[in-house]
Structures are given as C-alpha cells and as structure tokens.
Backbone:
C-alpha cells in the first residue's frame, strides 16, 4: 500500500507539474506570438500614415518612379525594423510581380494580402497558422500602380520561442525533480500513520485489540486514528460482552435438563445439547432423520410466525417425549429450534395417580360395602347366633382398620408434602426400639404361621430422631415381609453397628420382587402386584413414607431382592454423636428436621 501510494503521489505530482508547464508554455508562446504580431502591425501603422502614403504616391509619378518609391520607403528601414527576417519588397500593382527587394527573393508569393493589394485594398490580415506576418499597401501613381509589401518570417519570434521552450524544459525537469522529492516526503507523511493504522486493523481483525496506533497529528488522519482507537475499544468491549453472554447461554444451554436442538433452513444440524443427546439416544442427524415422518414437517415449521409454534409427542424407546418446534432467524436466513421435554416420569406419575385413585376408590368401596352388608345383616336378623354375630362384627372392625390405615397413610403423605408433620426428636437406643417392635409383631407372625426372629449383632450406638416414626418404619418393613411371605415363612430381623451408625436388616424367604420393579419400590403409589397388594391391604405408600421418615433423620433405606428367593431391607441411621444436622432437642410442632 505504501509503495502504491508513493507512486500515485509521484505520478500525480509529475502530471500536475507537466500540465502546469504545458499550460504556461502554451500561454507564453501564444502571448509572445500575439505580442510580436501586434508589434509588427503597430509599427507598420505608425510608419504608413496618410501623409506618408500621399508622399509615396507623389513619388510614383514620372520616370524611375519605382526606384524613387523604393528608395523613399527604404529610407525608413529602421523605423520599419527591416532585417534579414523582415524584408521590404516593391511589387507591381497589376500582377504582384517583384520589382525590387531588400532580401534575396526571386519572387513573392501571392498571399491573401498581396491579392487584396492587387485589388486595390490594403492587405494586413494575419493567420496564426501561417509562418509569416505581411503587409501589402497599394500605391497608385501617374506612372503606374505599385504595391509596398513588407513580410516578416518570424525568425526572431521562432528564436525567442525556442529560448522560452528551453527555459520551460529546464524548469520542467527541475520541477519534476522537486515534485518527486515532495511526493516522497508527502507520501511518507501520509503513509506512515496509514501503515500503522493498517497494522492495527489487521491485529483487530485477528482478535488482538491491544495494538492501538499512535496519533501523529491533528489533521484528518489523526482524527481517523483517534476514531479507530475509540472504535477498537468499543468493539473490544462489545465482543467481550457478547462473549460473556455467549458463554452464559452455552453454559445454560449445555446444562439444561430439557433437550434443545437447532437446525438451519435446510434441516442440517446446527447444535444439540447434552440433554437432547441423552433423550434422543443419538449425537446428531438432520431434521428428517431425527423427527421426520410425522407432522409437523420442516417446511411447515418454517412458515410459522412468532410467537406460534408446533408440538407433538414422540415415543423414543421407553421414553415419552414432548417436542416443541419454533422458527428463528430472519426472512432470508431461517432455522428451527426444537425443545424436548421428557414426559416419561410425568406420564408414569399420572398413570400411577390414576391407578391409585381407582385403587383407593375400590379399596374404600369394598370395605364400606362389606361393613354396610354385615351391619344390615346384623340389624335385619335378631336371631343370628352370637358366634356369627361376633364374626360379622370382627369383619366390620377389620374393614374399618383397613380404611383407617389407608386414610392415615394419605394424611401422612399430605403432611410430608406440606411440611406439617410433627416431629419429636430425641436420642434413643435403636436396639430397644427394634426389640419392642419385633415382640409386637410376633402375634401377627404367628397368626400367619410365620417364624419371626431377632438377631442382635453387637451394641448399637444411640441415634437422634423421632422414635415413633422410626418404629413405624420398622413395623411397616416387617409387616410387608409378613404380608408377602407365604404361610410358614421365616422373617429375620438383624441389627448391627455399621458405617458410624446403626443398621437394621429385615429379611424374608418370601416371593421376592422382580428385578425391573426394584428401582420403583420407594416411589409413591407403586405396587408390584396390584391384585395381591389389594388383597393384603397395601396402598403402595408404605415404603415411600418409610423413605421420607428415614431421610428426615439423615438415614437411608435400601432393598435387595431376588424373585422367588426372598427380600432384604436395610435401614441405616447415623449415630447421635456424629449427627450434626438434626434438631438439638425437640423440633417445633409443624416443622421439618433439617436435611
């Protein structure tokens, strides 16, 4: 760029100098020629006055009139400026033939002025394109007509013009040298800040905003440099802000739990976040490959206008996905954003709730129907034997207990959800609690022909928690083992100090649980065998409540089972000395213990 600018300035300066010299030369030559012409005719006019012409006409009479006329005019040679280049000739007035001359002419050309003089007129016209100035003055005498003809061949003018041309040529060469030097100096003065500005612009284009050119002057280039530096700082700040926003969006985009996929107007993949990869099970693909084959199509989505969108459901393996499609971009460059929501858990919960409502309705209706039927029978027949009446009353009591348990579980779930559970926190010996609960459950075990045993594997540390709630958890786990073990089964309760706390194991040799159902056992409303659970009075809430209770005490509950071989449930509670997050004494009514 520097060399180009230098050469341009040199060429401009040289052309400008040559143009000026050419204009000056033409002006000088034309002025000189005009001056010489005016000087010639002014001098002729000053000599050939009316009186002088009358004198010449008087001398054109008599013998040797031509010689007298020639000599008379020649006497004024100095005033006429006669020389080798300016010649006086006496011509015949009839045909313009040469009579006498001061030059070495053998004849005179019949110029327009000579022809005018032959016709009796004064010829003193000139042309810039002719190589001479001339004057033809007709003289009429008694002895004949003559023409006084003076011709200037411009020799002095040509000599002077050549001298001027030489001077102009020398001035042009000198001026060109000066122009080259000045153009180089000027180009350096202009190109140096421009070159520095170009280097800084290249650095900015490469992402380096620290290289800012210095301001050399206060002229336009200095203002340009200052403006560039301001622009560079503003651009750096803007890009930094955009980069920060981009990083925020990328971080949010990548860590969203919902899937997001972006496509261009042709359906090619632009971006896909980790959640979408996990939900779709693929790392990429076009719109047609991922979502094609069903409404809406890519073309239909691209025709939508903000804030309209399209949606549909998609079954992907075991997942139920809800897809939202919306266009983005400008009219000339559009794309499609797809947001993916995993509805699997919601659908499962909705299904579980519907089933639960149906089951609860059935379970409430069945005991209420039984109660009503047995009560009506007792009232209708006063002669029912005492033994049958007592059996009917026992059925009513059992059905009432069944409904009470269901209502109690529902109330417990509600209190847990809304934080209204009453907690009575204290330090207690879990071994005593397990022993008491085992003894209390032995009667039920005998009724079902089960063998319930307790094995204490060492001294347990004291734990801090709500003793009644933990007792309810142990009773629930042991009760499940009794319910789902065929008659004559073996239920074993074992305690042991483990992992800085107290572990309680409840094992049975019952029917076991299918492997696929184990991960869902602690979910609300979930039951492995709905028919069998209903027969045994189960609602699918016991284990979920147990998990909530143990979790509130900073403990854990887990389950291992093998279908047909039995189940083992492990309850673990941290020791009181190492537990720092539970209430120090007694939690206030309606509050939750810290998690």
Residues:
């Amino acid at each position: 760029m520097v060399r180009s600018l230098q050469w341009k300035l040199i060429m401009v300066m040289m052309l400008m100098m040559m143009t000026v010299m050419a204009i000056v030369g033409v002006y000088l030559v034309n002025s000189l020629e005009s001056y010489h012409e005016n000087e010639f005719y002014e001098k002729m006019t000053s000599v050939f006055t009316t009186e002088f012409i009358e004198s010449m006409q008087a001398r054109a009479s008599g013998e040797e009139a031509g010689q007298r006329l020639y000599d008379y005019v020649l006497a004024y040679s100095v005033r006429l400026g006669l020389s080798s280049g300016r010649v006086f000739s006496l011509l015949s007035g009839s045909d313009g033939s040469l009579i006498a001359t001061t030059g070495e002419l053998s004849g005179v050309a019949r110029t327009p002025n000579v022809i005018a003089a032959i016709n009796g007129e004064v010829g003193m016209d000139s042309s810039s394109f002719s190589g001479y100035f001339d004057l033809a003055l007709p003289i009429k005498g008694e002895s004949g007509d003559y023409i006084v003809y003076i011709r200037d061949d411009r020799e002095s003018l040509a000599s002077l013009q050549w001298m001027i041309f030489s001077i102009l040529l020398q001035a042009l060469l000198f001026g060109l040298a000066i122009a080259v030097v000045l153009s180089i100096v000027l180009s350096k003065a202009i190109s140096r800040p421009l070159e520095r500005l170009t280097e800084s612009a290249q650095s900015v284009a490469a992402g380096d905003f620290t290289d800012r050119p210095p301001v050399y002057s206060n002229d336009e280039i200095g203002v340009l440099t200052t403006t560039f530096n301001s622009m560079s700082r503003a651009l750096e700040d803007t890009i930094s802000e955009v980069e920060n926003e981009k990083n925020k969006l990328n971080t949010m985009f990548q860590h969203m739990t919902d899937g997001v996929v972006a496509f261009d107007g042709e359906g090619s993949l632009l971006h896909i976040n980790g959640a979408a990869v996990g939900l779709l099970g693929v790392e990429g693909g076009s719109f047609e490959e991922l979502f094609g084959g069903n409404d809406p199509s890519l073309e239909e989505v691209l025709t939508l206008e903000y804030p309209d969108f399209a949606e549909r459901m998609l079954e992907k393996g075991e997942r139920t996905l809800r897809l939202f499609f919306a266009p983005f971009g400008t009219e000339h460059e559009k794309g499609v954003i797809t947001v993916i929501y995993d509805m699997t858990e919601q659908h499962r919960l909705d299904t579980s709730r519907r089933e639960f409502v149906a089951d609860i309705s059935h379970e409430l209706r069945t005991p209420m129907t039984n109660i009503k039927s047995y009560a009506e029978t007792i009232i209708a027949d006063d002669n029912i034997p005492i033994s049958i009446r007592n059996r009917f009353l026992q059925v009513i009591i059992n059905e009432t207990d069944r409904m009470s348990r269901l209502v109690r579980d529902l109330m417990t779930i509600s209190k847990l959800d809304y934080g209204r559970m009453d907690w009575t926190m204290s330090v207690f010996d879990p071994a005593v609690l397990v022993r008491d609960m085992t003894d209390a459950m032995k009667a039920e075990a005998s009724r079902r022909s089960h063998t319930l045993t307790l094995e204490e594997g060492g001294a347990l540390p004291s734990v801090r928690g709500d003793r009644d709630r933990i007792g309810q958890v142990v009773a629930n786990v042991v009760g499940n083992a009794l319910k789902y073990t065929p008659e004559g089964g073996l239920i074993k309760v074992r305690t042991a100090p483990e992992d800085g706390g107290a572990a309680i194991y409840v094992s049975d040799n019952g029917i076991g649980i299918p492997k696929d159902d184990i991960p869902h056992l602690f979910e609300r409303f979930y039951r492995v065998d709905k028919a069998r659970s209903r027969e045994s009075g189960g609602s699918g809430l016991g284990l979920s409540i147990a998990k909530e209770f143990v979790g509130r005490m900073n403990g854990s509950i887990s389950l291992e089972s093998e279908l047909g071989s039995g189940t083992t449930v492990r309850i673990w509670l941290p020791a009181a000395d190492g537990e720092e997050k539970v209430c120090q004494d007694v939690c206030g009514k309606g509050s939750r213990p810290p998690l």
Remarks:
- Residues 155-205 form the longest helix (51 residues).
- The two ends are 72 Å apart (CA to CA).
- The chain has 16 helices and 16 strands.
- The first strand starts at residue 86 and ends at 92.
